[in-house]
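Figure 6 in text form: structure in, sequence out.
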């Protein structure tokens, strides 16, 4: 779950993700995914990305505030399911709806691939949708923090989303200074939106306990991890593992 703008060795990291699975990359406009599954399904993945992008573009044309709002919005009547999901997640987290867009793409593509594959991992610039048949450990990349890639989340079999926000790496907007703000949920939009909120709350290491207590109270959040410099905190039904 790595924001990569300051992590140059992306290919090495992604080889660690893939393991024994077939893997490939899909890029369309601003979306760039790394996908692992039982076999390569480039057309399935690309079609899913393009369809969702067109759906969101059409909705934004109707509701321009959806693209730029930093606060929750109600969906318009007749809004597509993805916009409704993003609005619901952003309201729960207290952020704008586009805070959930990367998670929405990773889950949408992952579910399409699961029609043809027993397992899937979709990594979208720090936001992962994963369905595995066995336990897997997801490494946490935290930029220049000495804890970067030294800790992982041990995830049990089944579908889950692990989303990351950062105020020190990556292009995404954050009002905090977290090296990594990680949220785990069965709901990809919620995980993404709550990771943004967690990151916004982390101005310094002193904020870790308070911010984690706030985010674990959001219904649907399984657990969360916050890293600021040399300090790490975790909360919820998750298991951290030294790497």
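Output sequence:
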């Amino acid at each position: 779950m790595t924001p990569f703008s300051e992590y140059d060795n992306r290919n090495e990291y992604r080889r660690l993700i893939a393991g024994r699975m077939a893997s490939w990359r899909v890029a369309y406009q601003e979306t760039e995914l790394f996908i692992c599954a039982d076999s390569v399904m480039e057309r399935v993945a690309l079609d899913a990305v393009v369809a969702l992008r067109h759906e969101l573009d059409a909705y934004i044309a109707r509701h321009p505030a959806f693209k730029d709002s930093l606060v929750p919005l109600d969906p318009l009547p007749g809004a597509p399911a993805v916009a409704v999901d993003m609005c619901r997640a952003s309201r729960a987290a207290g952020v704008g709806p586009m805070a959930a867009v990367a998670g929405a793409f990773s889950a949408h593509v992952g579910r399409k691939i699961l029609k043809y594959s027993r397992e899937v991992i979709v990594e979208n610039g720090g936001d992962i949708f994963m369905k595995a048949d066995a336990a897997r450990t997801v490494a946490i990349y935290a930029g220049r923090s000495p804890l970067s890639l030294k800790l992982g989340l041990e995830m049990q079999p089944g579908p889950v989303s692990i989303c990351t926000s950062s105020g020190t790496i990556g292009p995404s907007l954050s009002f905090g200074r977290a090296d990594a703000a990680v949220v785990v949920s069965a709901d990809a939009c919620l995980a993404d939106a709550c990771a943004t909120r967690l990151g916004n709350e982390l101005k310094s290491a002193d904020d870790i306990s308070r911010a984690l207590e706030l985010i674990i109270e959001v219904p649907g959040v399984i657990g969360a991890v916050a890293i600021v410099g040399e300090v790490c905190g975790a909360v919820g039904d998750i298991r951290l593992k030294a790497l």
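Caption detail: Residues 16 and 139 are 9 Å apart (CA to CA).
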